[in-house]
Amino acid sequence: MPIQYEYRYMSEPTQKLEIWCAGKDWCPVTATATLIGKKWHTVVLHRLLDNGPLGFNALKDEVGGISSKVLSDVLEDLEQKQLINREIVNEKPVRVEYSLTDVGESLESVIMEMADWGQEHLMPAATEDSSIA
């Protein structure tokens, strides 16, 4: 059963999202991981934080290594979770632009801490096949 959690940014409620959490007791770490823990979610949020609003192809270029289908699925999921906005820009040709919602922007400190931690503790793998098992 989803549990409502009131997101707070700058000590003011912004909106409530229903977030699933395993177990009897609600856990903010589990709930946050459920919200952004999929492979490409934080990468997309990070690129939008760094670059501001982007069209689909520009975002795909910024993310790198993601297929159009997977990016489309990620964007749909993040929009459904109310972390990004999808706006149709009425230009010739018509295009779609993606930007962060206020709740999405409030994840900036979390995502930047991940970037800082990675910079301090990780280095590129010697080969593309190298990974931690």
From TrEMBL:
Keyword terms, alphabetized: DNA-binding, Transcription, Transcription regulation
GO MF assignments: DNA binding
UniProt cross-references to Gene3D superfamilies, sorted A to Z: Winged helix-like DNA-binding domain superfamily/Winged helix DNA-binding domain (1.10.10.10)
InterPro entries: HTH_HxlR, WH-like_DNA-bd_sf, WH_DNA-bd_sf
Keyword DNA-binding belongs to the record: yes
Ranges where the HTH hxlR-type domain occurs: 27-126
Pfam family, one: HxlR
PROSITE patterns xrefs: HTH_HXLR
Keyword field contains Transcription: yes
Domain of life (superkingdom): Archaea
UniProt-listed PANTHER family: TRANSCRIPTIONAL REGULATOR, MARR FAMILY, TRANSCRIPTIONAL REGULATORY PROTEIN
Name of the protein described by the UniProt record: Transcription regulator
Taxonomic source organism: Natronorubrum bangense JCM 10635
